[in-house]
Amino acid sequence: MSKFLVIAEKPSVAQSYAKNLSAYKKEDGYLEGESCIVSWCLGHLAEYAQPEEYDPKYEKWQFEDLPIIPEVWKVQVSEDKKKQFEVIKTLMNRSDVEYLVNGCDAGREGELIFKRVYDLAGCQKPVKRLWISSMEDEAIQKGFQTLKDGKEYAGLCNAAVCRAQADWLIGMNATRAYTTRYFKRLVVGRVQTPTLAMIVDRDQKVKNFVKEHFYETHLRCGNLEAVSGKFSTEEEAHKLADLCRGKTCRITKDESETKTVHPPKLYDLTTLQRDANRILGYTAQDTLDAAQSLYESKLVTYPRTDSQYLTNDMEVTAEELVEMLEDIQDFLEPEDLESEPEVKQTLNSRKVSDHHAIIPTGQVKNMDVKKLKERDRNVLYLIESRFLMAVGKSYIYETHQCEVQCEKQIFSMVLRRVKQKGFKSIEKKMLLFFGKKPQTEADDFPEIHLMEETEPCEADVREKWTQPPKQFTEDTLLAAMERAGNDELTEESEKEGMGTPATRAGIIEKLISSGFVARDKKNLIPTDDGNVLVTILPEELKSPKMTAQWEMQLNEIAQGKADSDDFLKGIITMLRELTARYSGISESEQKRFSEKEGKTEIGKCPRCGSSVYEGQKNFCCSKKGCGFALWKNDRFFEERKTAFTPKIAAALLKSGKVSVKGLYSPKTGKTYGGNVVLADTGGKYVNYRVEVSKKK
C-alpha cells in the first residue's frame, strides 16, 4: 500500500499532524500510520555552506579573494542535525512513499526549509502543500482535505532561495571586506546594517539637538484654563500675568468639531510586537516566541503574518469568537462590550495574502490560561483585547478651539467632550489590567457662552523647553522598519519595508549580540563600534530605502512578476564595485577602530595578515577565530629568564626572528646570546627555537 510523507517544521507540529492523520506508531525520528508517515525538520536542517567549503583558501580571510561568488550553491547539514536528516532522506526515498506533503510553516521560510532538505535528499517525487493559519484540529483536517499542488508556490520558493543567497553574498563578502580592511570583526548584513544606520541617525539627532527654553502665561478661570503664546523671556510672560491677574475674561471665539477615532485593526505580527513592547516592555523576539508558543498550543492563529484583516468567509467564525471572549474576559464589565459588535469591519479578503490577522482560537475557552507562562498569558490577553476592540464602535469626541480675551490680550483654550466611548472602554480596562495609565480622556465642561464675563482669573508663568526627538524603542523601530521606503504609507499603498514581520525581531537581536547596539531600558542605543561602522559604510549597504526596495523585489519574485537571476546579478555587481572601491584605502583609515580602542598595532599576524595588538597577557591577533597569540608568560622565555617585551614581539612578527642577549641556559647556568626564531606550526600554541652562531 502506497503512503504519503508529511514533513513538519518542528516535532511539536508533527505531533499535531500525526494525531489528525491517525499516525500513532512511534519510530526513531517519525510517526507512521496506515496511509501516511509524519516526520519533521529541526528548523533549518540545512544551510548554505561556508566559503572554505568551496575552496580551502577561503579559510584565511583575505581581501584579495573577494568577492566570493559560488558558481554552484552548496547546501550542508549541520553536525547536530545529521541524524534527523538521514531519517528524512530515507523516508523520502522509501519505495512505498508515493508523494510528499510540505507541512512546514506556511510562509517564505517554510518553503526554503523544505526545499533544501528535498534537494539534498535527491528526491524527485511529487510535492503537495499544506497551507493553514491555525493549529486547531479542525483547521489541520480541512488543510489536509484541500492540499495544494506544490508548484503553485514555486514563486514563493524562488523568493526564499533568492533572499537566502542575497543574504549570504552580502554577509560573507561585506563582512570579510570590512573586517580585513579595518582589522576588526565587522558584521555586515543586507537588512541588519540599514537598521543600524537608522538607530545611529536617530541617536545623532538626539545628541545634536539644542534645547531652547520658552515661557507661557496660564490663566485659570474657574474650571477653565487658557494659555498665551510663547515668550522668549520670563519678564514678558510675568508682565502679562501681572496684567491679567484678578481680572475677568471672555470667550470671544468658539470653533467646535466632532472627531471620530475608528477602532484599531486586528494584529499583524509587527503591531503585536509594538504593543507588547510599549505596554509590557517585551522585546520583539520575546513577543514572537510567545506568539509562536501560543500558536503551537492551538490558542492563536499563525503569528508570522503581515495582514490585519480576516477573509470575508470568516464572518461566522468571528461572531462566535466574540461571544466566547465576552464570556471569558474577566477584566471587562458587560457595559464595556458592544451589544452589536461590528464584525464586518474586520473582513477584507483583498488585504489577506498568505495569512489572515492574528486572532485567538476557539481552544481558548477550554484552556486554564493561568497555567501558561506569564509572558505567553499576557500576549494572549493582548490578542484577545485587540480582537474585541477591533469589532467595537468608534470613539467619538467633540473639540472646542476657543479664543479667550483678557485685558485685550488673546489666550487659547482647547476643550474636549466624549460623545461615544466605543472601543476606548476596552482599551482603558486592558491598560489598567496591565498596570498602565490610560491616556487622558476628554473631560466634561460647562456650556460655552460667548462674550460672557468669567469670575476673576488667577495667572502664573511656566517655563518650558523644546523637546528633542526620542531614541528608538523596539516599538518605534519596528514601525520605522515597516515604513522604510514608503514616503507616504496609506491604507491602500503596498508596503515595502525592511525585512519581514518574521525576521525583524532576529535582526534587532543580532545587532545587540554583535555589539553594535545596546539596550538602555527600553531605548536602543548604538555603541561606539556601531557609530564607527555606519560612518565607513557606503550608502548602498546602509540605505533603508534601498533595502526596502530589495524586499519589494523579493515580493515581486514571489508573485512571478520579477526574475530572481536579475535580482542576484544586481547584488553581485554591487559587491564587485564595493571591493574595487575599498582596495586602496589609506593606512590611517584602516586604523579607525584600533585607534578608537587606544591600542597600538605591533605587527601583522603571520597566519591571516590581520593586526596584532598588545593585551594584558599576550600579543594577540585581532581577527576573531584566528587563534594566533604570543603569550607573555610563555614557558620558553620564562625558562631563559627573559622578559617577552613588545619590542621582541614586534621583531618576531616582522622578521620571524630577533637577536636576544642574556639568554639563560638551564643546563649550564650561564647566559648567552642568540637568535630567537618564531617556529609557528599553526597549532593552538606558538613554538620558538634558538639559533646560536657557531664560533669560527
In short:
Helix content is 37%, strand content 20%. The chain has 696 residues and is of the alpha+beta class.
General description of the model:
The chain is α+β, with helices and mostly antiparallel strands and about 700 residues long. It has five domains: about 5-145, Rossmann fold; about 165-205 and about 470-580, Orthogonal Bundle (Topoisomerase I, domain 2); about 215-260 and about 395-465, Topoisomerase I, domain 3; about 270-395, Topoisomerase I, domain 4 (Orthogonal Bundle); about 600-690, no CATH class. The chain is about 35% helix and about 20% strand. The chain contains 22 helices and 24 strands. Strands 2-3-4-1-7-8-9 form a seven-stranded mixed β-sheet. The protein has a four-stranded antiparallel β-sheet with strand order 18-19-20-21, with helices on one face. Strands 11-10-15 form a three-stranded antiparallel β-sheet. α5 runs antiparallel to α17, α8 (about 270-280) crosses α11 (about 375-390) and α11 (about 375-390) packs antiparallel against α12. The termini are far apart. Residues about 490-495 have low confidence and may be disordered.
Class of the largest domain, according to the CATH hierarchy? Mainly Alpha
N-to-C CA distance: 91 Å
Q: What is the total tally of β strands?
A: 24
Shape: flat
CATH level-4 homologous superfamily of the largest domain: Topoisomerase I, domain 2
Strand content: 15-25%
| Gyration radius over CA | 33 Å
What's the mean pLDDT score?
89
CATH topology of the largest domain: Topoisomerase I, domain 2
Largest sheet: 7 strands, mixed
Query: Oligomeric status of the shown chains?
Result: single chain
Return residue spans where pLDDT drops below 50 for at least 5 consecutive residues.
Answer: 488-494
Query: What CATH architecture of the largest domain would you give?
Result: Orthogonal Bundle
Name the structural class. Answer: alpha+beta
Number of DSSP helices? 22
Helix content: 25-40%
Number of domains: 5
Strand order of the largest sheet: 2-3-4-1-7-8-9
